[in-house]
Amino acid sequence: MLNYIWFGMMAISVVAGIFTGRIDAVTEAAINMSKVAVEISIGLIGIMALWLGIMKIAEASGLIRIIARGLKPITIRLFPDVPADHPAIGSIVLNMSANMLGLGNAATPLGLKAMEELQELNPKKDTATNAMVMFLAINTSSVQLIIPATVVALMGAAASQIFITTILATLASTITAIVMVKLLEKMKRFSVESAS
Amino acid sequence: MIESIVGGLNAGAKYIIPLLLVGIPMYAITVKKIKVYEVFVEGAKDGFTIAVRIIPYLVAILVAVGMFRASGALELLLNFLAPVLNFIGFPPENLPLALMRPLSGSGSLGLLTDLVNEHGADSLYAKIGATMFGSSETTFYVLAVYFGSVGITRSRHALVAGLTADAVGALSAVYICKLLIG
């Protein structure tokens, strides 16, 4: 899937770039973005280290286990393949809480920790498991209770008006994500064996 | 009423991180007698490896997204989709943002800024745009970073599910705003 989309985006870009006369900009974007990607990754090191350190303390003190147990009724339905008291569940719950509170800086390290723990349960290391896809889909659909500070700054007094609409739209997209994942994971073309 | 809730949530948010940074070690050191400094450093060691592991995945995705944005393909797509959008009541003004949202966080913030500057923060276009921005994530980036961090290349149904959710989110933003504010 990603193979076709990745190639397709670049192929369309080159064709469209020639057509619109912006082929120079396409070249420049390719070179520029490869630099940006490295800058983003390197920039993550500090914040990753900070949250992974704090998470290790939370894990060693049993806090993660307590949180995982508390939300068992929900997580067991979303992630049936993951044992309910597995550390991955604790990290998943913390990542979602951070997302809900709009703490993007904390959410990414917590999410990557969850991915690492889900990978331990994965028998086929280059292929995503059902639990991983579910986790990713919930993350990309964004469950947010706090309007991003940038949006508040931009919208001014109108920001409070979009509070309810944002929550409702987020709810719609998250439910769609969950339903889609559950439907698609049973389809043969997305199965672990034939995955691409 | 809503204003005070929003105000309260946003005012409270700034205390969460400092409380977590102090609260977690405090529980560990007082209740469980854990050597918090040593455990912290042990966990923090992984920060470097994970961040570096993401690089090839992020380069692949961001280069493709960057080329796509620069090529003008989005505008071509816009012309192509305009008749369909008019039919379903989707304002063409909001389409660039809806298409950009899964591709780029900074790009979609730029488009939202344009909407606010052009139509005013009080306009329906800006409100729909802000709802779209707040209710979705940068799907391609999240996919590259999350799957890349553990070396997953076969993403199975993740992208289809993510993009469908983005589409439903964008449509919901339009109809919910029209219904509640418009």
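qc> Chain B has a mean pLDDT of 90.
qc> done
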